[in-house]
Amino acid sequence: MRLSLNTATVKKATLAQAASLCAEHGITGIGPWRDVVETAGGAKAARRLLDGYGLTVTSLCRGGFFTTFTAEALADNRRAVEEAADLGTSELVLVVGGLAPGSKDLPAARANVARALEQLVPYASGLGVRLAIEPLHPMFCADRAVVSTLGQALDLAEPFAPHEVGVVVDTYHVWWDPELFGQITRAAGRISAYQVCDWVVPLPADMLLGRGHVGDGHIDFAPITEAVRQAGYTGHVEVEIFNQSIWDTDPAETVKTVVDRHLTHLGPL
Amino acid sequence: MRLSLNTATVKKATLAQAASLCAEHGITGIGPWRDVVETAGGAKAARRLLDGYGLTVTSLCRGGFFTTFTAEALADNRRAVEEAADLGTSELVLVVGGLAPGSKDLPAARANVARALEQLVPYASGLGVRLAIEPLHPMFCADRAVVSTLGQALDLAEPFAPHEVGVVVDTYHVWWDPELFGQITRAAGRISAYQVCDWVVPLPADMLLGRGHVGDGHIDFAPITEAVRQAGYTGHVEVEIFNQSIWDTDPAETVKTVVDRHLTHLGPL
Asked: Does B182 touch chain A (CB under 8 A)?
């Protein structure tokens, strides 16, 4: 499976630096975050930059955070769709958001995800962008994503065509799920992105930053990767690692490690 | 639903102190941990003590940690079964254990849970003790419990009679689960214990200790409690909170808070 570098893995690099490192190390894909794209002069400028390095934009991170279903959230998601289209990627990753402030109504928050998709799909689809629902680990259910499993993401995707709403398989978020392999099979045609990083214990104080390089933790990548492949996914595998000590490392060093681990655990570049 | 105090909530109290506080505050059930029972002179002495206060022992915490399937682990679980029987409770809570040291083989660890149940059920059943599988939050999958959902616990329970293998519903571990209500319905006849505490964000550095008093966090208790009741559960609700700052509080104060929150969120004592 070909390798893509998610820019969150090299947080202190600019888009130009990340792209240059990719080219230097034989990485053919890149998954930028919106803030990095903005700093690079916006989506059109970013695309020219990335085209110059021959990089495929595998996804844009991220839209979502629309469980409150506010007009602002929906408008921001339409902008994210436009940016994805301008970047030349068909996949906009969505982290759906947690409980509304002060609310304990999980079913209502989840219903708002379905409503937001209904609102956004026609617009995204018109621009050739697929909305890619990313289930987050259940430990983020209260504050970041009320969609916690691949099965739940697929239930939300089901009313829409496979080119309209997809799902993200991120090993960190789904590796524990007893239903994982069945749901990956079910996801055939809807896998927007396959993201990897490892589950390391103990988690640090900030749970968001507890992810490890592939191979440093407890996840068995081979069977998950094979299941994603068997489901017909032919895209890149995107390495997305949130980890303060990796962020503090020289990005060139990090990219080298990412490539080494990819070759060991995931196959050729 | 009647209230039971799990001794982990008042970690610095002895069993006698905890029992006395229960009696004083109108709490009719208690769920002791094995270490507390041992310190109280063993299960038979503990039972005399608790009988003296008129307390029902709602469960014993805990057996399990048998994903390595060692002879020692199985022997220790047989001792836990004997202690449950001596305490006069039919419910032995099992935290099944994480991945074996150095292993990434989650299916193998899960298969060992099924094998361990097969080994233990005849012995437990002979002593009138039900093995109560507790699914733990997926964030504990690597290191504490490879059983992460109520559905998965019920799949493991299914080969056995409802009086032989049950499940624990602990709000902290299962509140996020999109399948929760369906699985509680499915659990009818097998609910060994209903435990409560709240999900508070941000979690502290030690994830084990991040639980809050009922009402302090994001969990909506009423619908879960109602579902447990609808599933035919007639036992106590056991308050089990792991939280350093609660542990540092005077146990009498903690018990008072537990009672107040119970009356507000869960009903009469």
From this structure: no
